[in-house]
Design goal:
237 residues; Rossmann fold; 7-stranded parallel β-sheet; 8 helices; 46% helix
């Protein structure tokens, strides 16, 4: 199947890494859709409004995408939130809110998208994690827990659905040059840079390149893998 006959769903494509991934797939010639809560989208991306915290909403969004451009061939689960604070100050709600969006929301999307992939006996599932998930970070117990758990999802899906032509992999970005990073104080940015062997932040397009590879024909025998895009920050983890 050629790229322009394949449907990609990138959750949270309205900003940041998700937007760069969606733009890369449009440039590669795929039919691209997103599930998002609001905001403008890149040109060529079909938007279906959905809430990662609600299974019915996710199901409706996938149904709308299927009616517009067919069953999902590639799912990129990117949508996520953070509620950073130190462990002793973190409330139950700050923990469970992040889990519900980042982890359970990803599960909801994987479960829904995999139905069509099983029927077609092919599919690519790509979960966007973080170096924090394997490396750890103070003040991010909730966020790191969800990002680490995505590895378990990918590897379990690989064992469960691998014989049906479905792969599941994780991309773990490090510090990315986004609006959020640019808003950090200069001293904080320099502290982060000092810990990165590559001595620079990544561009969102570099994460998109790794995702594009995993969705393409050369990655058909890669599954259950964690691909770091972190300039060497988390190596060995």
């Amino acid at each position: 199947m050629s790229e322009n006959e394949r449907t990609v769903v990138v959750t949270g494509a309205n900003r940041g890494i998700g937007r760069a991934i969606a733009e890369r797939f449009v440039a590669d010639g795929y039919r691209v859709a997103t599930i998002y809560r609001g905001g403008d989208l890149p040109e060529g991306v079909f938007g279906a409004v959905g809430d990662m915290r609600d299974s019915d909403s996710i199901d409706a969004a996938f149904t709308a995408i299927e009616e517009h451009q067919g069953l999902t061939d590639v799912l990129v689960a990117n949508a996520g939130i953070n509620r950073d604070t130190l462990l002793m100050r973190m409330t139950d709600e700050e923990f469970t809110d992040v889990v519900d969006v980042n982890l359970t929301g990803t599960f909801r999307c994987v479960r829904r998208a995999s139905k069509g992939m099983i029927r077609k006996r092919s599919g690519r599932i790509i979960l966007i994690s973080s170096v924090v998930g394997l490396y750890g970070s103070p003040g991010q117990v909730n966020y790191a827990a969800t990002k680490a758990a995505l590895v378990g999802i990918a590897r379990s899906v690989t064992r469960e659905l691998g014989a049906r032509g479905i792969t599941a992999n994780v991309v773990a970005p490090g510090f990315i040059d986004t609006a959020m990073t640019q808003e950090l104080p200069e001293a904080t940015q320099q502290k982060y840079l000092a810990s990165i062997p590559a001595a620079r932040f990544a561009e969102p397009a570099e994460v998109a390149g790794a995702v594009s590879f995993l969705a393409g024909p050369d990655a058909g025998y890669i599954s259950g893998a964690v691909i770091p895009v972190d300039g060497g920050l988390g190596m060995g983890h």
